[in-house]
Amino acid sequence: xxxxxxxxxxxxxxxxxxxxxxxxxxxxxxxxxxxxxxxxxxxxxxxxxxxxxxxxxxxxxxxxxxxxxxxxxxxxxxxxxxxxxxxxxxxxxxxxxxxxxxxxxxxxxxxxxxxxxxxxxxxxxxxxxxxxxxxxxxxxxxxxxxxxxxxxxxxxxxxxxxxxxxxxxxxxxxxxxxxxxxxxxxxxxxxxxxxxxxxxxxxxxxxxxxxxxxxxxxxxxxxxxxxxxxxxxxxxxxxxxxxxxxxxxxxxxxxxxxxxxxxxxxxxxxxxxxxxxxxxxxxxxxxxxxxxxxxxxxxxxxxxxxxxxxxxxxxxxxxxxxxxxxxxxxxxxxxxxxxxxxxxxxxxxxxxxxxxxxxxxxxxxxxxxxxxxxxxxxxxxxxxxxxxxxxxxxxxxxxxxxxxxxxxxxxxxxxxxxxxxxxx
Length: 424
Ligand code: ADP
Ligand code: ASP
Ligand code: MG
Known about the structure:
Bound molecules: adenosine-5'-diphosphate, aspartic acid, magnesium ion
Structural class: alpha/beta
Number of domains: 2
Shape: globular
Distance between the termini: 40 Å
CATH superfamily of the largest domain: Acetylglutamate kinase-like
Mean pLDDT: 95
CATH class of the largest domain: Alpha Beta
Largest sheet: 8 strands, mixed
């Protein structure tokens, strides 16, 4: 007997037949004698709809911020998962399985106070473990928990992955299976490069980079938790026949295992290519060149919860001024401009220029640590396709390049092919 957490994403629970299909996957594991907790997302498209409803409401008048109350945002957007958890419990009961739904606050899954992008602080697994002992399957609403202010908090988009891994850690599960609409982690998004290959294993470090650089197959925080708590996490497909041979394999289920790099025998120099659209470039012109300027700019942006990336600073010839260029998610651009306008006088700069419609394309691989020339290969390949590079950042195991969004697909395919990642 093993203890397994199974997570099903939005497309896997998109309608009633698919929820029934998910129930068959769960039944397979229950019939094999395992203890099972299931984490579900909202039906695909539902969370987007709920977010759009919130955004369509008038903003509070007189408030000092042009934004809505994040606690009410959470009250609205967490509702999608409540629906699917109940529906799946009903589907399981109809198959004779002892199951019940759980909302985040009932377990409880405790988070911090950062409504809209909360982090899990603690999960009390004792109730779940007690119910496992009674043969009950727990069907848990993903994406949500309860904040110290006693109100529902959501974990940021894609957060059900994090719910699943955190629960697996809390109940000391033998395995956490992330079921989705692809059968594993690929060398790049298979939707834009059909020649992408499925990776049998990928290291935590590379998966962290891929996720934070745009591969939305796993939420970044879920990978961090899997790495810290050593949760054996697989990414696999819910669309395969639940009863096909090998689907119930305990040690080697079909899919991609996220694991320590020592477990990977044949390490490639480049493992994958990720991309993120909806980046915006912000440039502050003629910034006074003195100590404290960067802190004066990026401190307030951080306090406003704006993720700044790709910072480039140029020093003018006379040494008195500098230009500061950086990227933020397009969705945060208006907020960033408001924050920057406020610090303009104290920091001292001339103008803020900004441009949305950028993409960041990244090359990821642990092998880069010990191989030179990986970046040069990317720059040459992109230049041969006439793609202009606007900014570059590198780390030990990745290179990120900012380009115009119109060239995203071309850049991804070009890099995928130049590093030999295409399917034979
Ligand atoms: P779910 O609703 O199940 O959480 P997501 O849409 O969040 O699913 O994530 C799955 C999607 O991630 C896939 O459909 C695929 O288009 C995308 N994706 C991006 N990069 C990758 C990658 N390297 N490997 C696999 N899928 C990827
Ligand atoms: N339903 C949430 C979202 O769409 C959480 C998730 O699916 O992981 O972001
Ligand atoms: Mg997801």
